[in-house]
Amino acid sequence: MVMLPFINEENTLWEYLKTAGKPVVLYGTGDGADKVLARLAETGVPVSGIFASDEFVRGQQFHGFTVQAYSELLALREKVIVLIAFASELPDVMERFYKLASVHETYAPHVPVFSGEETVTAVWIKKYERELQTVYERLADAVSRETFASVLNYKLSGRLSYLQACTTNRAEDLRTIFSFGGEETYLDLGAYNGDTVQEFLQLTRGRYKKIVALEPDPKNYKKLTDFVRQYELKNVTCLQAGVWNDCGSLELTGNGGRQSTFWEADRSGFATQNLSQTCSMKKKIKKQQVTVVSVDAVLGNDHADYIKFDVEGVEKEALEGAAGHLAPDGNGTLPKLLVAAYHHDEDLFALPLLLWKLQPEYKIYLRKHPYVPAWEINIFAK
């Protein structure tokens, strides 16, 4: 099958495992491991053992295996293939991943955030070849193109080296790609507990005109408002609402973490409600009706200088609802946009193409920030 010139990998990790001829073990338990085990079962690849970080091993069982310690895995002399089956952005945890890779043949399998969605394969790349090539060529710099290629090659192969090669520092990227003044209006979509409000304050050294922060999950919203009160922030408006392409209400699924979302991948591919990123059959996931609004409705006649979109899988709909406010200000400056591009595999090309459709003048940069697997892929548009 003809591949794009920047694609190095011909087969997926799952195809490789069928013929690798080594025992396969997992590092990690929980929801991520559930997904990896299910995919291995579909592929017909048996599992020989389950390992977890030493501090979590208590002699427990997981899918019929007695969970063994990470230290035992490092000391194992048998040649095995290790599949990392949980996600982390913590430096010490990622260091464990890379240490494993220095001892054993180690991969971090790519599985879709939302179960049931199509994912990157050679067939997928051929299907979207034109779109992928278009975005690759239009990205604003060489680092963006290298990141784009590395992410796709990682999703095919599960090789940690691709993630290492393209990972950059988020704070440094924000400062070098964007410039921030002291009179900015910031719209934070998916404000969680106030962490990205705090990030904005650090970028502007505490100087700004106005902040509007939206968070739909009640538990997260309380953390957000507690943060604003604790630091006695002025000119900050918090809204308990989700973001969509229109105003109304939708069913939110989640248990008060970062992955509360409106998205559910059904057979038709439409976004209806949600299957949580960390969903497990062993957990009861809370569902509730919440208010959703569009960016255009929130801003009205105002102009935002900087908008962050990290809305757990509905970035497309959120951008559509911002179409009226992606215009230059009086000085000819477009709003700066930071858009999460990892919740769906198609986001990597579909979101840039949508942005250029809504505002052709945008220059788009792509960056991958520290995380295993390939989460924290972000679009910077200016």
TrEMBL record:
BP GO terms, sorted: methylation
Could you list this entry's UniProt keywords, alphabetically sorted.
Answer: Methyltransferase, Transferase
Q: Could you cite one Gene Ontology molecular function of this protein? A: methyltransferase activity
A Pfam family: Methyltransf_21
Is Transferase among this UniProt entry's keywords? yes
Record has Transferase as a keyword: yes
Protein name, please? Answer: Methyltransferase, FkbM family
Record's superkingdom?
A: Bacteria
Domain Methyltransferase FkbM per the UniProt entry, residue ranges: 188-323
